[in-house]
C-alpha cells in the first residue's frame, strides 16, 4: 500500500529585505509503500531538509502535492491540510526528529517523553513506563530524567529528541540528520530503534551524512541531484 506520494513538489524562500526569491527545490516526485525506509541523499544545500520539513508542514509547500494515507483521515494532501489536521497528524501519526531540541522550558526529560504519549491518549501509568523504557534504551542517565534539558550536552539533547519521537511508534517518521552529534554507541542504539520500528510497520524517510549508518538499513535511496529513486545498494555515496 502506498502511504506517501510526492507529486511535483516545489518550495522557494523569499528574502524580503532584498526583495528576492530563491528556489530551494522543484518538481520533486517519489512515492513509498508502508514499512519502507527511504534515504535522501545529495549535496549540502540541495534541499533535503526542505522536503522533510514540508512533509511535516513546518514549511508550507509552494507547488505540487504531498499525499499521505492517514489511518484516521484517509488520503490527505499535506500541502493543503488545515492546521487542525496537521496538529492531529503530528500527535498521532507523523513524527519528526532533527538535530535540534526545541521543547517547553521547565519541563523535565522524563515529562517530555511521557507527554508525547499522554497527548496520544495513553494512561499516565503506561506513559511513565514506556518513557522510562525509551530513556533506558537510549542510555540516558537516570540521574538526568528529572532534570531540565537546557543543562544537557548536545548528544544528550539529541537522544532525548529521538526518544520523544520514537516512543509514539508513529506510522511515518521523518529523520533529519538524527545521528549528527552522536557517538558510535548511541548511533547503534538509534539503528536498533529504527530496525524495531520498521518491523512494527513504521514508514521512514531519513537524511544521513553517515553512509555506513545507511547501509543495509534503507530500502531505497532518493538522489536530489538526479531527482530519481533507486534500490539502496551498499557503497552509496552522499556528497555534502
UniProtKB/TrEMBL annotation:
Q: Does the keyword Transcription regulation apply?
A: no
Domain named ABC transporter: residues:
4-240
Query: What domain of life is recorded for the organism?
Result: Bacteria
Q: Does the keyword Magnesium apply?
A: no
| Gene Ontology terms for molecular function | ATP binding; ATP hydrolysis activity; lyase activity
Per its UniProt record, what InterPro entries does this chain match?
AAA+_ATPase, ABC_transporter-like_ATP-bd, CP_lyase_PhnL, P-loop_NTPase
Q: Which UniProt keywords apply?
A: ATP-binding, Lyase, Nucleotide-binding
Entry-linked Pfam families: ABC_tran (PF00005)
Q: Which family does it belong to?
A: Belongs to the ABC transporter superfamily.
* NCBIfam families documented for this protein: CP_lyasePhnL
PANTHER family with a match to the protein in the record: ALPHA-D-RIBOSE 1-METHYLPHOSPHONATE 5-TRIPHOSPHATE SYNTHASE SUBUNIT PHNL, LIPOPROTEIN-RELEASING SYSTEM ATP-BINDING PROTEIN LOLD
Name listed for the protein in its UniProt record: Phosphonate C-P lyase system protein PhnL
Species the sequence originates in = Gracilibacillus salitolerans
Classification of source organism: Bacteria, Bacillati, Bacillota, Bacilli, Bacillales
Which gene is this protein's source?
Answer: phnL
Amino acid at each position: 500500500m502506498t502511504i506517501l506520494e510526492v507529486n511535483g513538489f516545489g518550495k522557494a524562500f523569499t528574502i524580503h529585505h532584498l526583495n528576492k526569491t530563491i528556489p530551494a527545490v522543484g518538481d520533486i516526485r517519489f512515492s513509498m509503500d508502508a514499512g519502507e525506509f527511504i534515504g535522501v541523499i545529495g549535496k549540502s544545500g540541495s534541499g533535503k531538509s526542505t522536503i522533510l520539513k514540508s512533509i511535516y508542514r513546518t514549511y508550507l509547500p509552494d507547488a505540487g502535492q504531498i499525499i499521505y494515507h492517514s489511518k484516521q483521515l484517509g488520503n490527505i494532501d499535506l500541502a493543503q491540510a488545515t492546521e487542525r489536521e496537521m496538529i492531529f497528524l503530528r500527535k498521532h501519526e507523523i513524527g519528526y526528529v532533527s538535530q535540534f531540541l526545541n521543547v517547553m522550558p521547565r519541563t523535565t526529560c522524563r515529562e517530555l517523553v511521557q507527554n508525547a504519549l499522554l497527548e496520544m491518549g495513553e494512561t499516565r501509568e503506561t506513559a511513565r513506563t514506556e518513557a522510562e523504557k525509551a530513556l533506558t534504551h537510549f542510555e540516558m542517565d537516570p540521574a538526568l530524567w528529572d532534570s531540565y534539558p537546557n543543562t544537557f550536552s548536545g548528544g544528550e539533547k539529541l537522544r532525548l529528541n529521538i526518544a520523544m519521537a520514537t516512543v509514539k511508534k508513529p506510522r511515518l517518521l521523518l529523520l533529519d540528520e538524527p545521528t549528527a552529534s552522536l557517538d558510535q554507541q548511541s548511533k547503534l542504539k538509534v539503528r536498533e530503534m529504527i530496525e524495531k520500528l520498521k518491523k512494527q510497520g513504521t514508514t521512514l524517510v531519513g537524511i544521513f551524512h553517515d553512509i555506513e549508518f545507511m547501509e543495509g538499513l534503507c530500502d531505497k535511496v532518493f538522489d536530489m541531484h538526479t531527482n530519481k529513486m533507486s534500490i539502496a545498494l551498499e557503497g552509496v555515496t552522499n556528497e555534502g
